[in-house]
């Protein structure tokens, strides 16, 4: 669990760019940030909010426009590049030119802050590289040229390099971007476990809202106005901050289910009776078809059981259906048929 001494702190931090002639163009801030050892933090926000800009600034790859940024108790700018590389590893979305390196050679580069560029790898370094390959499931990629890997494979091998670097802080910009669903879930599980077991602080940006809400110890929520909100995922959902950050015309976040509604409710009310998986998927089908499921009595009633469905219009006998498709067909038919 997080300790009481933050690994990274920021006060009055403003991140952004300079446009000519030397005019600061703030993207987000002023920010007050704390990252504690042992926590997985997901940085969420709409496109263009400034997530990558913030991550690059925290990694020391671009200067803040103003404010103070400390890592391990020292100002980030005061750290030499090797000292910084022993404190933090970073994987960005930029394409990496890895020449003819194999997967293993790329991961071995992660050990250089510990060995120096001319230093050979010790048995301990080799073990760290092997452990990073194993943790990311990339052993089979170790002998393949990185230039020939798929986007998802390259993303995993870059994560392995960051793990091999073995730093107290890991910064990842959209690490799930090119991964399929099983790999996205596996990655979030791995990062969560890693934070818990090794005490590393891991900050990642992602558009995987659902996964982030499940996996993150804390969320840094960066809305388009650049005013960061932080908290547990649950507190941010229940306070409405999460819905507000992603507010779009016709796109509503439902705090009861933790999902964004794809369909705007327009059709007639349907009283939905039942519980469990059958009721959940019946609700989804009804919403997709434009009905508005409710627990309250309504002119149309649908009962969902694990084996069959019953539809009933007020004053009519109930009809039994063996599938949701048959139920929907009946609901769309005029009451007289
Ligand atoms: N090199 C740059 N120079 C000037 N402005 C930039 C630069 N890079 C990004 N920006 C601007 O900064 C803002 C934030 O961009 P950033 O890439 O940090 O957002 P993001 O939240 O990571 O977005 P996305 O979710 O789309 O990846 C955007 O308006 C973008 O156009």
TrEMBL record:
GO terms for molecular function: ATP binding; ATP hydrolysis activity. Pfam families: ABC_tran. It comes from the Bacteria. The keyword Translocase applies. SUPFAM superfamilies: P-loop containing nucleoside triphosphate hydrolases. Residues 8-249 form the ABC transporter domain. InterPro entries: AAA+_ATPase, ABC_transporter-like_ATP-bd, P-loop_NTPase. Keywords: ATP-binding, Nucleotide-binding, Plasmid, Translocase, Transport. Part of the ABC transporter complex HmuTUV involved in hemin import. Responsible for energy coupling to the transport system. PANTHER family: HEMIN IMPORT ATP-BINDING PROTEIN HMUV. This is ABC transporter, ATP-binding protein. It comes from Hymenobacter swuensis DY53. The lineage of its organism: Bacteria, Pseudomonadati, Bacteroidota, Cytophagia, Cytophagales.
């Amino acid at each position: 669990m997080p300790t009481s001494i933050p690994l990274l702190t920021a006060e009055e931090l403003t991140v952004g760019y300079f446009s000519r002639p030397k005019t600061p163009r703030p993207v987000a801030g002023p920010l007050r940030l704390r990252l504690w050892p042992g926590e997985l933090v997901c940085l969420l926000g709409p496109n263009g909010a400034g997530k990558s800009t913030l991550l690059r600034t925290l990694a020391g790859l671009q200067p803040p426009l103003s404010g103070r940024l400390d890592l391990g108790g020292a100002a980030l700018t005061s750290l030499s590049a090797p000292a910084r590389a022993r404190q933090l590893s970073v994987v960005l979305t930029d394409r990496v030119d890895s020449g003819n390196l194999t997967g293993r050679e790329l991961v071995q580069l992660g050990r250089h802050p510990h060995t120096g560029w001319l230093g050979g790898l010790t048995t301990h370094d080799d073990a760290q590289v092997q452990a990073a390959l194993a943790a990311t499931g990339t052993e089979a990629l170790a002998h393949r040229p990185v230039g020939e890997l798929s986007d998802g494979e390259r993303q995993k091998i870059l994560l392995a390099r960051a793990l091999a670097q073995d730093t107290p802080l890991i910064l990842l910009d959209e690490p799930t971007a090119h991964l399929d669903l099983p790999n996205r879930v596996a990655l979030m599980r791995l990062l969560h476990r890693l934070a818990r077991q090794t005490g590393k602080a891991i900050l990642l940006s992602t558009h995987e809202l659902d996964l982030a809400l499940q996996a993150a110890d804390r969320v840094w929520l960066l809305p388009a106005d650049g005013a960061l909100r932080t908290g547990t995922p649950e507190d941010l959902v229940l306070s409405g901050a999460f819905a507000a950050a992603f507010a779009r015309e016709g796109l509503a976040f439902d705090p009861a289910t933790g999902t964004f509604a794809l369909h705007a409710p327009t059709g007639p009310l349907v009283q939905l009776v039942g519980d469990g998986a059958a009721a959940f998927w019946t609700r989804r089908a009804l919403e997709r078809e434009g009905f508005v499921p409710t627990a309250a009595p309504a002119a149309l009633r649908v009962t969902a059981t694990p084996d069959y469905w019953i539809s009933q219009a007020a004053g009519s006998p109930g009809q039994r259906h063996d599938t949701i498709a048959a139920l929907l067909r009946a609901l769309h038919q005029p009451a007289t048929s």
